Structure formats: C-alpha cells, structure tokens
Predict the structure.
Amino acid sequence: MKIAENIYYVGVNDRNKERFECLWPLSNGISYNSFLVVGEKIALIDTVDSRFFPLFIEKIKEVIGERTIDYLVINHMEPDHSGSMGLIREYYPEICLVGNKKTLQMAEGFYREAGKTFCVSEGTTLDLGNLSFTFFLTPMVHWPETMVTYESHTKALFSGDAFGCYGALNGSVLDSTIDIEPYFPEMIRYYSNIVGKYGCQVQMALKKVCQLELKMICSTHGPVWTENIPHVLREYNRLSLYEGEPGVCLVFGSMYGNTMEMAECVAEGLVRGGLKNFSMHKLSRTDPSYLIADAFRYKGLLLGAPTYNNGLYPLMDHFVTDLQHRMLKNRLIGCFGSFSWAGQAVKKLVDFASSPGMELIGEPVEMKQGFSFEIGEKCRLLGESMAARILE
Ligand code: FEO
C-alpha cells in the first residue's frame, strides 16, 4: 500500500492476539507497522511479529519485486518489531542492519547474530540516493535502544512505539482515510499501559521531534498520522507531563455491596456538584489496562475499597501499585472505604493520596460494617468536594 511518494506500508494486522505483551487486552487486535522506503537504495523500517512473516515477505515482494533491500532500520528491538529480522536476512543476505549501539547489542543478544551492521548515533544521516534518513535517539520510549528515523524529502518520521495505539487497521492506514475516533482512546490506553512510566524521557523525545517539519508520523502500531499530527503531539505532551483533563476516574472494589453503595453516593455527589465528565469502574469487572488509561486521562481520582487481610483490598492494592510504577502525579485524590473489625483500607488510600505530587481532596470516608444514610451523605459531600475542585 503506497502511502506517500517512495513510501509503502508493508505491515500486518494481528486480530487473533488476546493480550499485548500477554498483559493488555486487545478488543480490536493490533497492527505491526513496517514501511518500505524505496529510493535509489531501498530501506525497510522495522519488521513484524515473526508469525506473520509469510504475509510480510509477500507484501514486500509485491512492492519491490526482485530488487534487493539495502538497509533494515530497526527503531525498536522489542520482538513485535524485530521478530522477523533473522528471516528477512535469509531472503536478503546482504542487508545491512541499521541501529544504534544498544540496538546492535540487543540484536546479538536476542537473535545470536546481527549480520552486516551500520551503527548510528544522534544526528547520523544515511543517504539512499534521492532520499536521506537522519536518526535521533529517544531512549525509554519504550526501551533504552529506541530511536526514531526522519526522512527529510518526504518529511516522514518513523517513530517506533511513540504515537502508537492498540487496534488493527480497518481497510487503510492513513488517518485521513479512516474513522479515527476509536483510535484516540486506544492511544491513551497504549501510552499509559506501555510508556506511561517514562514521561520525562517522552518529553525529551518530543523536544527533538517538534523541531522537525512533519508531514507524516509512521508509528509501529495504529494509523499513520497526517492531518492529526497536531492533536497527537498535544496528547503526548499532556500525557507525558501527567496533566489530566478536567474530569474524574472513580474506581472502587466491593465484596458484598456496601462499599459499592458508598461509590454510588460519591458519584451522586459528583453530579450534584455539576460534574458530568467522569468514569466509574468496579475493580473486579474492569481490566487494569482501562483503569490505568482513565487514571492518566482525568485530573481527579476517587478511590474506594474494603479492608482485606488487614490491608487494602487486593485489586485496589494492584491498581495503586500500577499507578506508582508509572509515577503518576499531578492528581487530586478522594478516598473512601470500609472495614468489618479493623480499618486499614482508607488509611492506605490516604497514604497514597498524600504522596508527592498528589493532593488529598475532601474528607476521607470510612465505614464500619454496613452502609447507612449518614455514610451515604458523607460520600456525597466527598463527591461534591471533588467536583468543586475539578470545576474551579
Ligand atoms: Fe511495540 Fe515496545 O513494542
């Protein structure tokens, strides 16, 4: 599929994979994007999951016929993109692997031999005759070896995982040709799940990328961005600065319904306070992938859980740990919870809400045993306090 003068999409859709990295659910599959840049010399940018190699090589042959590929640029060594490296070399034994020092070390480590190599560093250029690549290192977006490749004639940026999203591509690749709306929430989910921990490094990468004239961003997953480039750059800037939009993510756990009653009243308080923009999730029903995404999306977090084993309800404990691992900050947090004979849940949630970069909102609500009208009203007040703070 030709996507620009000299650039062809040769990636594949994986509609069978249940979970990305065996962790993150894929309700609509995922694409592994790879691109052929065809000049006087030919370069292949990244590969695909090795299970798709037969289809991948067929697509490549369809574009270049019996010509050979001169360079294989690997922007990112995670096996969803490097997995077909060895197989490509069987077809094109003279292909030169282009990567930075860490890429080449990983290529040896993962696949035993890298073959012919060209080692690049920050700002190195590679001439394809009528086209030219410049390489920029973007470590930790998503692995330490990650880099991006800029082609200066077409103004195309091959960005690795950056700006990628979950979801197979339906019928086309270019954002201007497909219904793009379903991909935006999946970009936030992908970012928060996979790259969320590395906000600082993403900021450094954005500084480099934003200096380039960009007509096309070709990520390794999801649509090729053209007319939505300003939007995706803004979203990446916001997410990597840990800035939430004015809204709330309300997450609760409940075993027998008492803490859920509290959550219902907190939600009533949000609405009573004039807030419409919030999501509400029961921990045992929603996969952590979506909870993490909403925690990154919204400025406010309302967390409620029972006490369990003299600590925090396990699913809430995991969720809070997930957020701590991603160094989430700049959040307003309200807490509520319950216990039957010894209270710990609210204390633990308040500890989290009091950590650096977080702000505790309203009066935490703690309930002993069963739900009551008085508890319900305290929960509504908590919701109102959060709404007021979000909307101020
Ligand atoms: Fe799509 Fe970090 O690999």
Q: What stands out?
A: Residues 373-391 form the longest helix (19 residues). The longest strand covers residues 298-308. The CA atoms of residues 24 and 289 lie 6 Å apart. The chain is about 35% helix and 25% strand.
